[in-house]
Amino acid sequence: MLNPREMTEELIKEYIDDKREEFIDFLVNLIQTDSYNPPGNELNLAKIIKNYLDKDGIKNEIFKFGNNRANLVAYLNNNFKFKNLIFNGHMDVVPSGNVSEWKYHPLSGEIKRNKYIYGRGSTDMKGGLAAMIISLKVLKSLNIKLDGNLILHSVADEETIGDEGTEWIIKNISNSIDCNFTVIGEPTGFKPLPKSIIFGERGHLQIRIIANGISSHSSFPAMGKNAIYMINDLINNIDKIDDYIPKVNPPITLDELKQLVSVTFPDEQAFIKFYNEQPLIQNFIKVFTTLTKSVTIIKGGIKDNVIPNICEITMDFRLLPLQKTEDIISAIRRIINECGYKMKDQIEGENDIFFDYDILLDKEASYWKNWRDSEEIKLFYNIVNKIYLQKPYYFLFPACSDAVYYRNSNYCEKTILFGPGNASLAHASNESIELNDFINSIKVYALFAYNFLKKKENIL
Ligand SMILES: [Zn+2]
User: Fold this and answer.
1) pLDDT (tens digit, 9 = 90+) per residue, 311-330?
2) Is CB count within 10 Å lower at the N or C end of the chain?
3) Could you tell me the distance, in angstroms and rounded to a whole number, from the CA of residue 328 to the centre of ligand 1?
4) Which segments within 223-374 are labelled E, that is strand?
5) pTM (2 d.p.)
6) pLDDT value of position 351
7) pLDDT of 70-119, one tens digit each?
8) Contact 209, 354 (CB under 8 A)
9) In this structure, are residues 411 and 179 in contact, taking their beta carbons and an 8 Å threshold?
10) pLDDT for residue 37 is more than 50
């Protein structure tokens, strides 16, 4: 005999299976709609989502900004007094890149072997966004009585900075509503591992560093100061940053991270064997315990017989919680000084040789500190386990997401990432998503919302 709670869960799962084709059509429709960022164009998608929610009488509102850009917020009901659960998904996708590298056009939403849907954003993250929207629809259509409210933040601007999307909504629309838990539908599959549930991420800092030298004819190089060589000096010494910034302990050690992943293996031995044979997985786990840095862009030189007076690089840093942007900047300044150069603010009088920098992106790390004590995250874990028929694992996110706006603003520290799709396909050519993964994620979202927003005494 099923109890009333289990009966409702069965009803939700059966309803989702029955409507499988309709839900896949909705995702295809989203993939076929251009919301490339830049420039954004999220309004194209917001209109389709609005139309879809309106059909079931789900209250929602579009907030337009800029040129053809928008955020959308939706509410399952009008009651905000018990618990409020937020589902967040971004509407923008990165541009397709070289279309000739795609097997199917990035806006095709092509379905193959009844198993995969192809297209830009299928994984990152129209799949997760569609599943969240559909979960609202499922709960509404089945007229499931809940004590709390499910709120959708369907946002713009995630693929650039996020301050006009998630940050804007938190500050301007949802600040008067208490938030008890947030799920962001970013893809959290990292093949060959099973699904993960994410409770933190590193920070992201991008700095442009410009060397100003002196140009001259290349037949008299000593007359000038070659800016490419100046940058070369910096790059050759860049690893000194590790010694020049204050030591911080990672919030979670390498052993603890390994322990988290190992739960998905039949036993400890099986995990160790797998770990030792997979250098990629070793790296994947290790990056969360350390600062990583890369030179991602270099530009310099104007002509083959001119000594360049300008050379610039963009550096990309991924910071642990407690690592500070100011510390990275002062380490870079120190290295530049040790190479015998001055910063722009250190030069006096007439001097054309100096370094300068500007910060292109600065997103802090964010981390839910007490996630281990949370009953909510365990509930989520158990639902994923039940639906995917495979144990998930708790982990950190290699990229960065809008979670920082919930966790670090005191608005909702209890923010996790969970979504369909394999994260390694995000931003890649031939991005695709598995249909079963997509359908399973709808079930996870709907069942979690149901269990989370229903008072315990009523469901047992
Ligand atoms: Zn994303």
Assistant:
1) 999 999 999 988 999 999 99
2) N
3) 26
4) 292-300, 306-307, 310-319, 354-363, 366-367
5) 0.91
6) 74
7) 999 999 999 999 999 999 999 999 999 899 999 999 999 999 999 999 99
8) no
9) yes
10) yes
The rounded distance, in Å, linking the Cα atoms of 171 and 187 is 26
Centroid of ligand 1 to alpha carbon of 254 (angstroms): 26
Distance 186 CA to ligand 1 centre (A): 5
Angle at CA of residue 291, ends 286 and 297, nearest 5°: 110
Looking at this protein, which amino acid is placed at residue 271?
A: F
Cα of 98 from ligand 1 centre, angstroms: 20
Show the domains of the chain with their CATH numbers.
4-201+365-459 (3.40.630.10), 203-250+290-363 (3.30.70.360)
Q: How many helices (H) and strands (E) does the chain have?
A: 15, 18
Separation CA 327–CA 233 (nearest Å): 20
Q: Report how far ligand 1's centroid is from the alpha carbon of 185 (Å).
A: 8
Cα-based torsion angle of the residue sequence 175, 181, 185, 187 in order, rounded to the nearest 10 degrees: 130
Return the structure tokens found at 62.
């579009």
CA distance 157 to 92: 6
Question: Distance from the CA of 124 to the center of ligand 1, in angstroms?
Answer: 5
Look up residue 425 and give its two tokens: 């396909």
